[in-house]
Specification:
By secondary structure, this protein is of the alpha/beta class. It has a single domain (about 30-225), classed as Glycerol-3-phosphate (1)-acyltransferase (3-Layer(aba) Sandwich). It is about 35% helix and about 15% strand. The protein has a seven-stranded mixed beta sheet with strand order 1-7-6-2-5-3-4, with helices on both faces. It is globular. The longest helix is centred in the last third of the chain and has 23 residues, at about 205-225. Keywords: Acyltransferase, Membrane, Transferase, Transmembrane, Transmembrane helix. It comes from Streptosporangium vulgare. GO terms for molecular function: acyltransferase activity.
């Protein structure tokens, strides 16, 4: 019997055969507080974005702790020959940006959560442009979904992928071997926004809830780095 949110056994084996060797080869692991990650039930996992490599490394972390990441991917990928078939098979959800179909990804995410999946969000929507690699302001999709469903939001911060493949770089820096740090935080407390399940949520509430989610991710990253995070998050570029 297929577990909620997981692909078929064939596609799980296919992905694991590719991802795990790459992950073990590229990085040493520093995974902290993984006991905070629920092993079952629908959850929204939110994380920072530093490099095009980190989805692979975060996926390895989740898989090793009993969760399959249902990733929201750009809709354009689904029309690319072979790639589109692959991302569908791996249970990714298409994101339709800047169109009347934008709500479809959230509705599909809602359905997956109800079935017990781990839906993985990058609230920033793109790799951070903060010069010091702190999380930027987030988009409201994860907050909207959480408030609409009451699903648990788990913040996960990571650090190290940008040392291997910086944003915009074409070639990875493989040596010396880097450490990929991951830290799971406690659930984000969104109780002050309770009562919105099934109801329209104001833009102000969505922004406040999103700020709380981003603050939770940033707090975990600050612990990993042993540094104090900026008081005000970097303002995201207008074109993203």
């Amino acid at each position: 019997m297929r577990r909620p949110g997981w692909p078929s056994r064939f596609w799980v084996a296919f992905a694991v055969a590719i991802v795990k060797p790459i992950s073990w080869l590229l990085v040493k692991k520093d995974w902290r507080h993984s006991d905070r990650l629920p092993r079952s039930g629908g959850i929204i996992m939110v994380t920072n974005h530093l490099s095009w490599l980190d989805p692979i490394l975060v996926a390895h972390f989740l898989y090793n702790h009993g969760r399959w990441p249902v990733i929201l991917a750009k809709s354009g990928l689904f029309s690319v020959p072979l790639v589109g078939s692959l991302v569908r098979a791996l249970q990714a959800i298409p994101v339709y940006r800047g169109s009347t179909d934008a709500a479809r990804s959230l509705e599909e995410s809602r359905r997956r959560l109800a079935a017990g999946a781990c839906v993985m969000f990058y609230p920033e929507g793109t790799c951070t442009r903060d010069p010091d690699f702190w999380p930027m302001e987030g988009k409201t999709g994860a907050a909207r979904l959480a408030l609409a469903t009451g699903a648990t939001v788990i913040p996960v911060a990571h650090w190290g992928a940008q040392e291997i493949l910086p944003y915009g770089a074409r070639r990875p820096r493989l040596l010396p071997r880097k450490t990929f740090h991951v830290q799971t935080g406690p659930p984000v407390d969104l109780s002050k926004y309770a009562g919105h399940e099934g109801e329209p949520v104001s833009a102000d509430v969505l922004r406040e809830a999103t700020a709380d989610i981003m603050a939770a991710i940033t707090a975990q990253l600050a612990e990993i780095r042993g540094e104090k995070a900026p008081e005000t998050p970097f303002k995201r570029p207008s074109d993203n």
